[in-house]
Amino acid sequence: xxxxxxxxxxxxxxxxxxxxxxxxQVRGLSVAKAVTLLNFSPKKAAQIIKKVLQSAIANAEHxxxxxxxxxxxxxxxxxxxxxxxxxxxxxxxxxxxxxKRNCHITIVVAGK
Length: 112
Known about the structure:
By secondary structure, the protein is α+β, with helices and mostly antiparallel strands. The chain has helices spanning 16-26, 31-39, 44-63; strands at residues 4-12, 71-80, 84-89, 95-100, 103-111. A hairpin with a 5-residue loop joins strand 3 and strand 4 (95-100). Helix 1 packs across helix 3 and helix 2 (31-39) packs antiparallel against helix 3 (44-63). The longest helix is centred in the middle third of the chain and has 20 residues, at 44-63. It is elongated and about 65 Å long.
C-alpha cells in the first residue's frame, strides 16, 4: 500500500477559478515534471501551487521517509475560501461592491 502525504494552504489570495486552471495541469504528474511545469508557467497561481507542492514533497521525505523520485501528484483540489468584501465609491452617493476572492489549496502526493 502506498503512503499518501498532504500539504494545505488556507486563504490563498487568488480566486479558486484561476488556481484550478493550474491545478488541472499538474494533476497526475510525477512531482519532478509538476515542479518543472510550474517553474515555467507565467500564472500567479503556479508559484503559489509550487510552494504547496514543495511542502508536500518535504513532508513525504521527512515525515514518512518516502523516496522523492517515486512520488506523484495523487490528488490536488482547490476550494473557495471566505471572500473579502469591499466597497468603491461611485457618483451620486452610491457604492459598488468589490469581492476579493480567496481559496484553499490541498495537494496529496503518493508513492508509485
